[in-house]
Amino acid sequence: MTTFDTLIVNIGQMLTMDHQGTGPVRGEQLRKLPIIENAAIGIKDGRIAFIGTHDEAHELAAIAKIDAKGKLVTPGLVDPHTHLVFGGSRENELALKQQGIPYLEILERGGGILSTVQATREASEEQLLEKARLHLDRILSYGITTVEAKSGYGLDHETELKQLRVVKKLNETHPIDLVSTFLGAHAIPEEYKGRATEFLIFMEQLLAQIKEEELAEFVDVFCETGVFSVEQSRAFLTTAKENGFDVKIHADEIDPLGGTELAVELEAISGDHLVGTSDEGIQRLAESNTMAVLLPGTSFYLGKEKNARAREMIDAGVAVALSTDFNPGSSPTENLQLIMSLAALKLKMTPEEIWYAVTVNAAYAIKRESVAGKIKLNRPADVVIWDAPNYSYIPYHYGVNHVNTVLKQGKVVFKRGSQG
Ligand code: IZC
Ligand code: ZN
Fold this sequence. Notes:
The chain is α/β, with parallel strands linked by helices. The protein is built from 17 helices and 16 strands. The strands form two sheets. Strands 1, 2, 3, 4, 5, 14, 15 and 16 form an eight-stranded mixed sheet that branches. Strand 2 (35-44) and strand 3 form a beta hairpin. Helix 11 packs across helix 13. The longest helix has 17 residues, at 125-141. The protein is globular, with a radius of gyration of 21 Å. 2H-imidazol-4-ylacetic acid binds next to helix 4.
């Protein structure tokens, strides 16, 4: 008989997220979560080796046993959109915001993203690594075990590569699995002011090396007023695809330019933000395989009344994921649980839709659907034990961290202190 490395027993409610059907979860499928009450799981060699009831687990042998004490257990969360690696911080922008100066105007004046670019250029690779590691530790403490990380604060060859190398090193050394995205088209640096097309050609020169050194899987662009137009974004991402990359787009975040339609046209893996998406854009998304990654923390933090039209999207059949958008400007938080609350309160998403959006669908948004987002036999044992009685409790009790224990590939990598 198998001796498991770890058995987690006495699970009150377990969301396996192992839904029927294939592909991203959308439409009717979102109404119901795959739940096992009074559950147990067994872990062997870092993988899920048994899923059953607490009673069945009585018979089983294990080196270590964890008593979940009737709590909620879920797969590790997936955060599919972060700007993890950056120098400095932007607390000075809070006062500007309070004076009513819009985000894009701060950028136009050389602040915003460009101030982070300066700090990131000045930081050594080692400094960036240590800073990003602290953020990543906090991300893990919130129950997130797979994270996408973008570059985009270099905007020159050397610093973009420096950021991407930091992500690669963190992926090798930190328990969290990282998925890397090249966002060289994040803003136009001072030295290219007024020369966006030339700048994009300059960034395209990096694509072959990034591919060769496996420094990123995705290429992304900030398609926005005063940054990159739809035409410029199309040209840049088309070149990225020709170089063998999958693509993503920061689309219709602040102004509705038509980035959503471009994401569908280019068969982007995800279109992100989508606050200004048109009716036509929603329809096209619904008929596509492009994941809508919604970032309600950003609308909240930018003080916007308008949010992504999640209800209309979901009701039209769009597949939706959620993310923190963790970054030093428009969403300085690692707390995906807070985003789950904002999704409930601002996007009117149901608890069931929210859980799919931070597990299975978030994994699809970064092409990790076969390894992340589900508790399923033979998959990596990325598991969270929550100080919560049921799944609806997490979006409800907002602003705090409900994580009790995080296991990554079967190992306990975070445990709440005795205060829990
Ligand atoms: O640093 O402001 N929107 N990029 C596009 C961001 C927000 C990150 C930032
Ligand atoms: Zn972003």
